[in-house]
Amino acid sequence: MRTNTVKSLGLVAVLAFALASCAEVPTGAVKGCTNPNAVNYSADAGQDNGSCVVIQQKQYSMFYKYTATWCGPCGDWGGPAFVNDCAALSGKALAFTIQCSDAFATASNGDMYTAFSTKWPYGGTPNFQCNSIACGTNDGLAFPEVATHNALAPDAGIGIHYTIGGGANSGKLNINVYTKFFNAVNGEYFAGVYILHKEITEGQNTAGGMDANYVHHHVMMSHVTGVFGDPIASGSIGAGKVYNLGFVFPYTDIPNLALNEIDVVGILWKKNGATFDVVNVTPNI
Q: Residue 132: which H helix or E strand, with range?
């Protein structure tokens, strides 16, 4: 009997706490980010709306693979190697594929191939690249490079929040990209936003012929900004400064894009003469 009484009292206490908690949020409370550690924290928000973006003061790496659906070795060993690499680099890198004039090719990701293969020489398919290191067919070179690169103290970081639009923005993504500078710096900085397909089934050439049910991972589908981003800050930039760009992007323009499989990611670039250098990225694995 005593045990039941204790349980009943406990239940009453829980219900009372829950009701009190609900009562703390007034009807019509301002919605926004309530996490003071987020770059988009709103002191006026009385109810969190899930939009908080916390940018960790960490350096991350960029890891990608040149590949093509017509490429037999890409299907035989390139794809499985990339999947294994992504698992091993979880939480450390932004990983994606650069498609080379294949079944995924669009004008948008074709721009990515042209720009990336000019900056980081294209050595065929499958070929791997990690930061500024051309790994070629030896994807294992990425691991010591990530360990060294990620041990660096970052000057800045980048974060993204997005929602699926409704009403007048139906068929579009509402995207906000934030950049936070941890140190005082000088230069021209650009924030890039990109759309990946986490997983998509598409025919792939293999040694055994065309596999119609081949699953491709982290496929670069489109860039929302310019290939090397849009301007976000320039000149003398103080430590602690935060910058924001917003976009409304029509995802219906991307063929075969499944909303439950998209990944919206960011790359922070610094202009260096006629080219751009990677500053930091949002890890997607």
A: none
Q: How far apart, in whole angstroms, are the C-alpha atoms of residue 218 and residue 209?
A: 23
Give CA–CA dist 197/103, Å, rounded.
Answer: 14
d(CA 283, CA 144) in angstroms, rounded, equals 17
* Element spanning 83, H or E: helix 79-88
CB-CB neighbours of 46 under 10 Å: 14
38 half-sphere exposure, CB direction, 13 A CA radius:
20
Q: Shortest CA distance to 196 belongs to which of 162, 247, 232?
A: 162
Q: In this structure, is residue 175 part of a structural domain?
A: yes
Domain of residue 249 covers 61-281
Any domain includes 123: yes
CATH code of the domain covering residue 82: 2.60.40.10
Residue 3 lies in a domain: no
Q: Which residues contact 185 (CB under 8 A, 6 or more apart)?
A: 155, 156, 237
pTM reported for the whole predicted model: 0.88
Average pLDDT per run of 10 along the chain, which is 285 residues long?
35 39 58 94 91 97 97 97 97 97 91 93 93 96 98 98 90 95 98 96 94 97 96 98 96 81 96 96 92
User: CA–CA separation, 62 vs 267, rounded Å?
Assistant: 9
CA distances from 166 to 30, 197, 210 (A): 20, 21, 39
The C-alpha angle with vertex 203 and arms to 202 and 206, in degrees rounded to 5, equals 135
Q: Is 187 left (phi over 0), alpha (psi -120 to 50) or beta?
A: left
Q: How many domains does the chain have?
A: 1
Residue 54 lies in a domain: no
